[in-house]
Design goal:
There is one protein chain. The protein is α/β, with parallel strands linked by helices. The chain has eleven helices and seven strands. The protein folds into two domains: 51 residues, no CATH class; 183 residues, P-loop containing nucleotide triphosphate hydrolases (Rossmann fold), CATH 3.40.50.300. Helix content is 42%, strand content 13%. The strands form two sheets. It has a five-stranded parallel beta sheet. A two-stranded parallel sheet has the order 1-2. Pathway: Sulfur metabolism; hydrogen sulfide biosynthesis; sulfite from sulfate: step 2/3. Keywords: Amino-acid biosynthesis, ATP-binding, Cysteine biosynthesis, Kinase, Nucleotide-binding, Signal, Transferase. One of its GO terms (cellular component) is cytoplasm.
Amino acid sequence: MCPIVLSNCLPLPLMSVLVFPLTMTLRKIEDKEQSKRLIAVSSGRSDHQERVLRMSTNIFWQESPIGKTERQKLINQKGCVVWITGLSGSGKSTLACSLSRELYTRGKLSYILDGDNLRHGLNKDLGFKAEDRVENIRRVGEVAKLFADAGLICIASLISPYRKDRDACREMMQGSSFIEVYMNMSLQLCEARDPKGLYKLARAGKIKGFTGIDDPYESPLNCEIELKEKEGECPSPVAMAEEVIAYLEDKGFLQNQ
């Protein structure tokens, strides 16, 4: 017997039937809304993904009359994504701001995508459940890709704790323009700094699922740049920014096009 769900109220896309788990029992669903929910759950997709699938039909890619190379020549730089990842309090935002300022002094255009800032707008509908965190990173990756395509140096500053999510963003770029910067600072140092007081709240049990306390952080395996603490201290913002800029210069991202 092929275990599927049948509905007399909602046309079932073939893909939704094919991906039903084998544990689903054969039964008839009379209620239309219940049928919709079962399809979403059975396919393993979130409600948001189901909405996108229903909406993303009969759409076509519109090519821009101005290509990426032309845009890069206009502003004399190559677009890329500098993805800064690490524990809360590891200095991600500090590096992002210092890097953006140093690039500005060199006449290079950048833009910071800060994880907290994005939750005030683009991602304000997302919480901190596992699936929301995945969607949070996916959205930031897509936006960062657009900035890089426009020729900007996009600086994404997020904890982004899961390796597979960061790797998925790298794959979006389809090339060497994704630069992963790992803020390799110890939990002890980050907790001692605790600029937002979040570790204190997490230790008190007032924040659940906090990265580094009761939720894991998966360190990068092949990051382009690794910044480490020195003698129990975070390196200076300028020193960290200069290390990233040296990499960008070496790879040709800051050269006149």
